[in-house]
Amino acid sequence: VIPPEPLPKAARASETITLDQGTVDLLERLSLVDFSNAEAVTRLEEAVKFASVIMNVDTTGVAPMVTPLEDVPLRLRPDIPTECSAEDILKNAKVTEEGYFVAPPGNIPLDVKSDYGLTESCETSAEK
Fold first, then answer.
1. What's the number of domains the chain is made of?
2. Per its UniProt record, what HAMAP family does this chain match (predicted)?
3. What is the per-residue DSSP string for 16-52?
4. 96 phi and psi, to 5 degrees?
5. Across-strand partners of 97?
6. Phi/psi of residue 46, each to 5°?
7. What whole-number distance in Å separates Cα of residue 53 and Cα of residue 45?
8. Which residues pair with 99 in a beta bridge?
9. Which residues is 96 bridged to in the sheet?
10. 66 in a domain, yes or no?
11. Is residue 25 scored above 80 in pLDDT?
């Protein structure tokens, strides 16, 4: 059930999202996306704001959907396994790193700026 027009409640997301530098650094490291300028951080904050609007939509009584194409038959090729090596598969990639695909191809692992306090807590736990 899709409304014919956007709902004003969903369009009016008045809450302001502000991400601290630690959160931005963590998301940068996990996603391999560079948020080094103010425009990129603003775009990230807008994405988080949009996600919070979606999370607040009342879906009571709405059946979950598996796919928008539930009533359309999907034609799939037969799944016939073939033998190949990791080297053969990685030949298809523009960029690889330590035996893995780098995707999207513009992404490369970023330098670790911080361990986000994980190393210290692991050492403390091991000492106890």
1. 1
2. GatC (MF_00122)
3. -----HHHHHHHHHHHT----SHHHHHHHHHHHHHHH
4. -125, 155
5. 100
6. -65, -40
7. 12
8. none
9. 101
10. no
11. yes
